[in-house]
Amino acid sequence: MKFVITKSIIENIISSMQPFLEKKDASSITSHIYLEVTNSTLVLKATDYEIGLQSTITDLIESQDGKATVNGQNLLNIIKRLKESDIILETVDNSLVIKQSRSNFKLPMYDANEYPSFPKTENLSPLNINNINLINSIKKITPAIDNNNPKFELNGALVDIKEDKINFVATDTRRLAVTYLQNMSNNVNQFIIPKKAIIEIQKLFLDEIKIAYDDTNMVISTNNTLFFTKLINGKFPDYERIIPSSLRYNFTVQKAVLVESIKLVTSLFSNIKVTFSPHSIIFESLDEESESKTQVDIDLSIDSEFYIAVNAKYLLDFLSMSNNEKIKIGFNESNLPFYLEDEKFYTIVMPIVLDK
C-alpha cells in the first residue's frame, strides 16, 4: 500500500478518530486505525467495538492498492509535527512508513485482515429525521444522561418513536429531560443510544445524513463518512408516568433573571432554595456555613407561597439549552417534582426534600 496525501486532510481525519480508539491497551488492534487503498480511494476506520467511524477519501493523486493498520495515537503524534505539505505513507515489510522531505518514520503494523468488521447496512430500518433537528434534540437532553449507572439503560438516551412524534429522553434519576419532534413517516419503535455515541454524533454531523438501525446497531452515514454505535440492550424506565398530568401552578419567568440570580447565590454552594410568592422570587443558598440570598420582585399568577429546593446545576443545564427568553415553570406543591418547559423541551426535577 502506498499513497500521497496533504497533511491537513489526513490530520483532520486521524484527529476525529481518536475518541473511537482503545486507549487503555496499546497492544489491542482496536488501538489501531485501519487504512485501505483501492482504485485511488482511501478508506480509514477506527473502532473500539462499541462505536466506530469510517472516512473515505477519493481521487488520490498517487497510490498503490493495499491495506494496513497502525496505532492511531502514534500516527497522529507524527503527522502533527510534520510541515504543511504532502505526506507519503507506504507499507514496507511489516511497518507503515511515513515520509515527508528528509523526515522518515516507521511504525509497526498488525494484520489488517484481523481488524474488526463494521456492521452491515443492509436490512436496517431507516430513521427519517433532519440532521439539524437530530443534533438539536440530543444536545438538549445530553446533560441529563447518567454516567456509569449500574442500570446500563440509564447511560444513554432513549429515542421513543410514537405515531405522532419522536421523543428524545434522558434521566439520571434526579431529573428527566424530554424533547420531541413531529414524526413524519417513521414506524413506532424504541432504542437507546449510549452517551459516548451521543457526544460524538454532535461533533461529526453537520451535513445531510442517512440514519438506519436495528435491534443491535445504529448507523449514520454521509457521502464520505460512516458512523456506527452499538445500542444499549435494556428497557428504559417508564418515563411517561413521571410526567405530571396536571399542574396546580403554571407561570412564565424571564430566563435571564433566573440565570443571573441562581449564579449569584451558588458561588459557594450548589444546593439552593427558591421561594415563589405572589410578588417575588427569593433565591438562597442551602449552605449552612454561609449565607447567600437575593430577591427578584415580580408579579406571579399564584395565590400562595411555596418553594423548591434543588441542585442548581439541574436548573442551569435546562436554562443553557433553552432557546427562548421566557421559560415556563409548573408546580403542584413544595417538596414534589417540578416542571420546566421551553417549547418542545421540558425537564422534570426531583427536589431536595426539606423539613417544612
TrEMBL record:
<dbReference type="GO" id="GO:0008408">
    <property type="term" value="F:3'-5' exonuclease activity"/>
</dbReference>
<keyword id="KW-0548">Nucleotidyltransferase</keyword>
<dbReference type="GO" id="GO:0003677">
    <property type="term" value="F:DNA binding"/>
</dbReference>
<feature type="domain" description="DNA polymerase III beta sliding clamp N-terminal">
    <location>
        <begin position="1"/>
        <end position="118"/>
    </location>
</feature>
<dbReference type="InterPro" id="IPR022635">
    <property type="entry name" value="DNA_polIII_beta_C"/>
</dbReference>
<dbReference type="GO" id="GO:0006271">
    <property type="term" value="P:DNA strand elongation involved in DNA replication"/>
</dbReference>
<dbReference type="InterPro" id="IPR046938">
    <property type="entry name" value="DNA_clamp_sf"/>
</dbReference>
<keyword id="KW-0239">DNA-directed DNA polymerase</keyword>
<dbReference type="GO" id="GO:0005737">
    <property type="term" value="C:cytoplasm"/>
</dbReference>
<protein>
    <recommendedName>
        <fullName>Beta sliding clamp</fullName>
    </recommendedName>
</protein>
<keyword id="KW-0808">Transferase</keyword>
<keyword id="KW-0963">Cytoplasm</keyword>
<dbReference type="Pfam" id="PF02768">
    <property type="entry name" value="DNA_pol3_beta_3"/>
</dbReference>
<dbReference type="Pfam" id="PF02767">
    <property type="entry name" value="DNA_pol3_beta_2"/>
</dbReference>
<comment type="similarity">
    <text>Belongs to the beta sliding clamp family.</text>
</comment>
<comment type="function">
    <text>Confers DNA tethering and processivity to DNA polymerases and other proteins. Acts as a clamp, forming a ring around DNA (a reaction catalyzed by the clamp-loading complex) which diffuses in an ATP-independent manner freely and bidirectionally along dsDNA. Initially characterized for its ability to contact the catalytic subunit of DNA polymerase III (Pol III), a complex, multichain enzyme responsible for most of the replicative synthesis in bacteria; Pol III exhibits 3'-5' exonuclease proofreading activity.</text>
</comment>
<keyword id="KW-0238">DNA-binding</keyword>
<feature type="domain" description="DNA polymerase III beta sliding clamp C-terminal">
    <location>
        <begin position="241"/>
        <end position="344"/>
    </location>
</feature>
<feature type="domain" description="DNA polymerase III beta sliding clamp central">
    <location>
        <begin position="129"/>
        <end position="238"/>
    </location>
</feature>
<comment type="subunit">
    <text>Forms a ring-shaped head-to-tail homodimer around DNA.</text>
</comment>
<dbReference type="InterPro" id="IPR022634">
    <property type="entry name" value="DNA_polIII_beta_N"/>
</dbReference>
<dbReference type="Pfam" id="PF00712">
    <property type="entry name" value="DNA_pol3_beta"/>
</dbReference>
<dbReference type="GO" id="GO:0003887">
    <property type="term" value="F:DNA-directed DNA polymerase activity"/>
</dbReference>
<dbReference type="InterPro" id="IPR022637">
    <property type="entry name" value="DNA_polIII_beta_cen"/>
</dbReference>
<dbReference type="InterPro" id="IPR001001">
    <property type="entry name" value="DNA_polIII_beta"/>
</dbReference>
<dbReference type="GO" id="GO:0009360">
    <property type="term" value="C:DNA polymerase III complex"/>
</dbReference>
<keyword id="KW-0235">DNA replication</keyword>
